[in-house]
Each structure stands twice: as structure tokens, then as C-alpha cells.
Amino acid sequence: MKHTATMALMLTLGVAGVYAQQIPMNMTFSGDGTPSVIDLKHPNTNTAEENLAGSGTQGPFTFRLVKASTAAPQPSTTCSGPTKFYFQDVAGAGLFRFFDGSLLKVNLTDGGDCIDFAANQAKCTLTFQVTGGTGRFQGATGVLMFTETATPILSDASNPPNPVFFTETGEFTGTITRGGNSRE
User: Fold this and answer.
1) Could you tell me the CA-to-CA distances from 6 to 1, 3, 19 in Å, in that order?
2) Model confidence over 61-87: pLDDT tens digits?
3) What is the Cβ-side half-sphere exposure of residue 11, based on CA atoms within 13 angstroms?
4) By C-alpha distance, which of 149, 161, 85, 153 is closest to 121?
5) How far apart are CA 116 and CA 104, in angstroms?
6) Are 70 and 44 a contacting pair, CB within 8 Å?
């Protein structure tokens, strides 16, 4: 009896492993970014929000990101020069909504924005941990890389003016693993 139960458990775990899928995520997007009314309550940070739409290996999607970035420039080995300033992203999360209604949740784990005032644009590089989802992304795990170029299109009336509304274009790349209990 004990041997039969052990064999049944091994078979169940083995079958679940067979159905786990590695899914490439290569997606391009465009959209906008702006300061957010959401306050993540991290000291000495500013909260921003991005609303993006795009398409890729998993079909059309929208993506909403809320993140907190340092209010003062930080040292960086990848963003240097007299007109460049680096702002580290310290917290955030995002939600993908795909054409079939499936959701994919991600948490920001690393990254920031390299702002080049001479070029009037920012290069943003972020790392996201996949934390699950719904529908075909139920139980998903993995890591996604986000690269983006942001360009200001509207500034406030301060002196000097602060950019407050941006165009955003870029891509997500990476691989996620989807468990055997997910819908195809």
C-alpha cells in the first residue's frame, strides 16, 4: 500500500513537471508616463505611473506600472556625463492585461532611469519578477527585462519647468515558466 501511494505521488509530480512550459516573452510597446496620485510612501521618492500598450509573442496587451524613484540623483556606473542624471527605482509593481483577459503580475526588483538633459530623453532599464497571474498565466514565474526611451511632451509652469508628461517606447524580454495547471 505504501509503495502504491509513493508511486502515485511520483507519477503526479512527474506529469506536472512535463506540463510546465518555458514561454519566451518578447514584446514591444508604446504609451505614456506621468507623475502618479498614488503615493507609495517611500521616503525621498517620487511616484510615477506608466500606461502602455503593445504586442508580442503572447499577443496584444496593455501594461500599467506604478513605481517610486529616488527624488535626488544617485551615483551610477552606467549613466555618467555632465548632462546625465540617474534616478533609481526603489519599489513598484505592474500588471499586464492580455487580449484574452489573462493577467500577468510583476514586481519591480531593480533598475532606474538615466536622464540625458542634452538629448531631452531618458533611457530606462528595469527588472521585474513575475509573481503569478490569471487565466493562461496562473502560477507563472520568471523574470522580465524592460528597456524604454522616454521623451517629455509637457512641462509644468515652474521656473525652471519640470517635465510631467512623457512618450514611452520600448520592449520587454525574458522567459516565464507556466505550471501544468494553467489554461492553454
Assistant:
1) 9, 5, 20
2) 999 999 999 999 999 999 999 999 999
3) 6
4) 149
5) 32
6) yes
Report CA torsion sign: 121, 125, 131, 134: positive
- Hey, which residues does 47 pair with through a beta bridge? 68
Residue 115: its H or E element: strand 103-116
Residue whose C-alpha is closest to residue 108's, from 42, 153, 163, 55: 42
* In the block, residue with C-alpha cell 551615483: 75
Closest CA to 92 of 45, 136, 160, 132: 45
Contact call for residues 91 and 46 (beta carbons, < 8 A): no
pTM of the model: 0.86
